[in-house]
Amino acid sequence: MPSAFQLQCHLVLIFLAASKGETRYLEVRDAGDDEPFLLLSEDLKRELSAGHIYRRSLRCIDMLSIEGQFTFTADQPQLHCAAFFIGEPEELITIDYDFVNIDCQGGDFLKVFDGWILKGEKFPSSLDHPLTTSQRYVDFCESGNIQRSIRSSQNVAMIFFRIHQPGNGFTVTVKKSTNLFPCNVISQTPSGRFTMVIPHQHRNCSFSIIYPVVIKISDLILGHLNGLFLKKPSAGCAGVGDFVELLGGAGLDPSKMFPLADLCHSFHGSAQMKIGCDNTVLRMVSSGKHINRVTFEYHQLDLQETETRKENSIEEFCFPSI
């Protein structure tokens, strides 16, 4: 039975990654009561490939991974609404206000958040984001026409809104742009391959996979300077400015997860770990003195893998519910 966190992610991520559009474009195929499998229909694929701007209405709770123009019009007081946006790992999200008709003085609000928040937990965490938490919010009622275009720092962003008066609402256009050095990513899918590069930047980057996974690191370069690898301490990563850690937990915020493994030595080869957590994060800490790079691939644990414990399994730290 899925955990509470996994059920929330059905609303926020699994359904999002599959839906990518309006209900009329969805094909639903039975895959068990807990997890319907939704696919984009050929109609939407043809429409988008023809260069059309995708338009549809927003729901009070909505999930989108596609560019387009989206309109919300309240048919009744809507007091607790949010729209989650996600791109590919190498994409940034820009949200433009096209039209806004809300009553700020009457208690309405429309806020963009740079990242995601779920049950009070943030991604990226406050430790890994270049802005303070307050700076990550852009409130339309405070900024008005001053800032009508907001670009995210990573591949996820969201809108919070509250509208009391039926008929009021807003229209936004969502666009995506290329991020040459992605830092802080939520994966749309339970499997994939990714290379994270931090070039001479003092920052921390997290790659989040909201599934129990097998993760395999195939290439790790830390402290690369003038073609030479700097010598690392022989025991652990304590005091090392550049390292990779694997985290696991049942929430969204990497800073609140269990530390499961540290890697502070460069290597070429393969290091694999099975992690039975609801959320798995690979996090790279960089001092800014070097070019650091890690390449890894991952796939979702199947039922047989979760039941078969191996020496490098760390499921017991995560209290898996599957």
From TrEMBL:
GO terms for biological process: hormone-mediated signaling pathway; negative regulation of corticotropin secretion. It holds the Pfam family CRF-BP_N. GO terms for cellular component: extracellular space. GO terms for molecular function: corticotropin-releasing hormone binding. Residues 185-306 form the Corticotropin-releasing factor binding protein C-terminal domain. Keywords: Disulfide bond, Glycoprotein, Secreted, Signal. Residues 53-177 form the Corticotropin-releasing factor binding protein N-terminal domain. It is found in: Secreted. Its main location: secreted. It comes from the Eukaryota. Residues 1-21 form the signal peptide. Disulfide bonds join 60-81, 104-141, 183-205, 237-264, 277-318. Belongs to the CRF-binding protein family. Binds CRF and inactivates it. May prevent inappropriate pituitary-adrenal stimulation in pregnancy. This is Corticotropin-releasing factor-binding protein. It comes from Acanthisitta chloris.
